[in-house]
Amino acid sequence: MRPGGEPLLAVRDLTVRFRTEDGPVLAVDGASFEVAGQETVALVGESGCGKSVTAMALTGLLPPNATVSGEVRFGGDNLQQRSRSALRAIRGREIAYVFQEPMTSLNPVLTIGRQIAEVLHRHQRLRGAPARRRAVELLDLVGIPLPARRLREYPHQLSGGMRQRAMIAMALACTPKLLVADEPTTALDVTVQAGILDVLRTLSAETGTAVLLITHDLGVVADIADRVVVMYAGRVIEEADVDDLFARPGHPYTRGLLDAVPNPARRSDGSLREIPGRVPVLASSPDACTFADRCSRADSTCRVHRPELVPGPAGHPVRCWHPLAPVVAGERR
Amino acid sequence: MTAAPAPDPAPRAAAAPAAPGPALEVTGLVKHFGPVRAVDGVDLAVAEGEVLGLVGESGSGKSTLGRCVTRLVPVTAGSVRIGGREIARLSRHAIRPLRRGFNIVFQDPSSSLNPRLTVGDIAGEPLRQHRLGTAAQRRNRVIEMLDSVGLGSEVIRRYPHELSGGQRQRVSLARALVAEPALLVADEPTSALDVSVQASVLNLIARLQRDMGFACLFITHDLASVEYLAQRVAVMYLGVLVEVADRAELFERPRHPYTQALLSAAPIPDPAAQRQRRRVVLSGEMPSPVSPPPGCRFHTRCPVAVDRCAVEVPPLRPVGPAGALVACHLVGDDGTAPSL
Question: What is the CA radius of gyration of chain A?
Fold first, then answer.
């Protein structure tokens, strides 16, 4: 399914615990997944599933009350063993981030051009005219009209969509190998989102950058992901190629998520599927399926034995004792 | 919901007119905030028992419209009739007794619920305000209403912060509907919720609407939930309506170029179908409502605009056999629409 050789990013058994006033919280519970070069992988789940924490943990962006274990291999290098300053150098140059709200990541008192120039100088020692040329190229790449003029503007002079494009341009300034985009279009209107998704979709083809997309939006996933990793309560519960996941979900939670979204393409006259209950907040990793309490297929096994992420009936990995069998085409709903 | 009328202290009187008329009728509605022309001439009606979806992006004025029809803000000009009764120019005081006939729920229930009141007090607020029934009758009605939004009577003594986001939205629905209004305005009621919770709140609104029969102005940016819930859909852009049509008509034959672009931009959760779709990416972004473009407000971003569009304001007029209303010079009277 994936090209041979070592993947660009390999996360093994990543575990993140937070010390909080209400006691310990297990945010990520032994997550393992890979991202190959030029691939767009979506890390999907609802709030509290651990997807953003996973993204931050990759390069040590978590606050001091977090304890991280496991292995993050990037280009063959174990990032967990690198110093803070080494990670800082990797961030930006090799792994770049784009967050939901660009206004909080841009410096309001510097022009867009100055901010891009700083990145180019810091990581590539580019200055003056070459830096300027590169900055114009980058703004053009992300579809900002009149790029030379935009360079002289401040973040507040740009609209939300243009700011997010500028953020992506900055993230791409050093042609990173991996772009981590955490809900990059969640704050934007759909017609603006469409433009940003176009940029992300063409990115790997034009720059060779792989994308790890963190999102809760299955429409966005269907639009730009090659592969999908579904998280629930800190664990990876399913992983598949995008077509496979939407056509043959194996985990009851994945299926529930797909059926909870009103979908004109396969409308039924019935009501939307509801998932009863809520995501548990865990202090430690239970020897059980963390979805069992909300699952209609759960039995005693699910409540006392931890399911592993193993190939399910549709062939892709599923963490479930009773995974769903693929439905024959036309039979669904 | 059981149809038990219970100790009905709230017969649907004031707001439900004897004469069959629209539950809500808005004519020439204008709302300016200083120089900001948020709503700039809207005509719209919601029939009794109908769910009308009002869709638009941020800055379209859709939420302001919702606040005008519930008179949470004063109206600059135009008429708002609820159950035949004109409320656009009534004073706060004069409007208070009429509020029983309409109510609104918002996107973020945590900021619209008073944190110091219990769930029971919050849900019973409209009954107390309008002095409906005895204390015992009100209590029974609150329990019944909480039950019909899927909350057990044990939540009655809880405080909003003890509830999940989905439960809080259920409480605001219970409050909005406890006095059986004829009109519910729902402003992005599921946008702050997780996908799985969203589904249960959408199902709940659909069921309550079927059971109680109120008219609903459902305001959202989410086309999928409109398609799920609404019978008719109005599309708003920069303070004006550009298209109004029955749900199936609008989703199958969007005519206004903006509606076409909006529908094509919303990703659908189906990778195979998504790859087959052609997407119209609009240039630029919504202009400022302080100085909306002359002529058709969409002409600055419209891929098919002609000279006339920059000069002449297109009226919202009926086109095609199904009675859709479209404000576009390029849409023919027979309903033929420009292809983008």
Answer: 21
